[in-house]
Amino acid sequence: MGFRRRGTRKQPPAPPAPPPVPAGPPAALMLDALGRKCPIPIIMLAERIRDVQLGQIIAVQADDVAARTDIPAWCRMKSQTFVREEALPQGGWAFHVRRDY
Amino acid sequence: MLLDEARARVAASLKVRPDELSFTASGTQAVHLAVLGALSARRRAGRHLVVSAVEHSSVLHAAELHEREGGTVTTVPVDLRGRVDPEEFAAALRPDTALACLQSANHEVGTVQPVAEAAEACRAAGVPLFVDAAQSVGRVPVPDGWSLLAASAHKFGGPPGTGLLVIRKGTRWRSPLPADEREGGRVPGLPNVPAALATAAALEAHAAEFAADAPRLRELVERIRTRLPETVADVEIVGDPVRRLPHLVTFSFLYVEGEALITELDRLGFEVSSGSSCTADTLRPSHVLEAMGVITHGNVRVSLPRGATTADVDRFLAVLPETVTRLRKSAGVI
């Protein structure tokens, strides 16, 4: 069973949704934090987000499972928009963030 | 008999009948017996279990076992403050629900859960409610209406290796273990009488002292909650600001490794805990912080002991900014 937040609760948990077909604009900048433990992926994201323009997407590749919680939470704290999480074929995820601020 | 005396005193503190209370070998054992025994007795009603996403791992591990054995589990999410929505909890109850579990208060972030509302929903649905009250017993009252309750003696200054299991009259329960007649057939093995007596004394003393000290501790926690964001950038205070335990406060610093922070604070004489993954044996971040959707790194949990002073808190608040700044600099954050 999973203990992550779920949208539905009456039905048994659905298997994780397949990564969405790329929705929205491609990332203007892709950071590689694979193999790095949190908080390093967040530190890299915070350092580099100003390298993309307002409204553009910056993506962070990471495989520390904590990043799945930490990146959306960072976006909330920093008034940025968390766009989506994309599973990577080699393991890990690419986290897409739109610079709004 | 000494055990009867201990039982009567603890039951009086908990406002339950002595024959509803059993001493267990730990808080964890009390949780396991409560969950698995209630599920076992209600097997004909169904095999569906409801838990909140932020239950103690002992509850979640019992739920995992239930699931491995063919049962189903619904996990009710929490909001950003770690609180279960009572309506969502009620909506998770089904005709085949055998048991619902809700902690009295969260062990990592101190958020108090809507136990009274959950109990009311469970009563209406005919489902027993199990309350893990380890954080509340000896500190704050637990609302009525539950069917089963577990607590841990060492959490209120009692001996380690002693837990409390309460099964209210009329609640169906069947031991998930081989038959053993001791403790009313609920807990196997000979009870530890000295530990039961020590538990009774500790509970009475702790409850009285804590009740007297709680307003002061609540103010000290409020002081931390207010001052910290004023003196350190990028800190998030987690947990419900109002509906919370009086003595517990949890916060997370962005860009700081939890383990490094705990080590530094320990060196400076502050004993604190962390839900950050790097401090735990497992590499998983805290399931509580995950379920809340708050950052999981740089996490610090302060549990104020009885008698903590304003001077202690102020010294803590004074060393935190420079400690955090130093750690951020060494991680390459300006």
Describe this structure in words.
- The complex is a heterodimer of chains A (101) and B (334).
- Chain A is an alpha+beta fold.
- Chain A contains two helices and four strands; from the N terminus they run βαβαββ.
- Chain A has helices at residues 40-48, 67-77; strands at residues 29-33, 57-62, 81-87, 93-98.
- In chain A, strands 1-2-4-3 form a four-stranded mixed β-sheet, covered by helices on one side.
- In chain A, helix 1 links the parallel strand 1 and strand 2 (57-62).
- Chain A is globular.
- Chain A starts with 28 loop residues before the first strand and ends with a strand.
- Residues 1-10 of chain A have low confidence and may be disordered.
- Chain B is α/β, with parallel strands linked by helices and 334 residues long.
- Chain B has ten helices and ten strands.
- Chain B has helices at 2-14, 27-41, 57-68, 86-91, 115-125, 182-185, 193-231, 258-267, 287-292, 310-330; strands spanning 21-24, 48-52, 72-76, 97-101, 129-132, 148-152, 163-167, 235-238, 248-253, 299-303.
- Chain B has a seven-stranded mixed β-sheet with strand order 1-7-6-5-4-2-3, with helices on both faces. In chain B, strands 8-9-10 form a three-stranded antiparallel β-sheet.
- The radius of gyration of chain B is 21 Å and the shape is globular.
- Chain B starts with a helix and ends with a helix.
- The model of chain B has no long low-confidence stretch (mean pLDDT 95).
- The A-B interface holds A 1-6, 9-10, 12-13, 37-40, 42-43, 46-47, 65-66, 68-70, 72-74, 76-77 and B 53, 60, 63-64, 67, 72-78, 88, 91-92, 94, 234, 236, 254-257, 277-278, 283-285, 287, 289-291, 293-298, 331-333.
- Chain A: Residues 31-55 form the UPF0033 domain.
- Chain A: This is UPF0033 domain-containing protein.
- Chain A: Residues 12-24 have a biased composition (Pro residues).
- Chain A: It comes from Actinocorallia aurantiaca.
- Chain A: Belongs to the sulfur carrier protein TusA family.
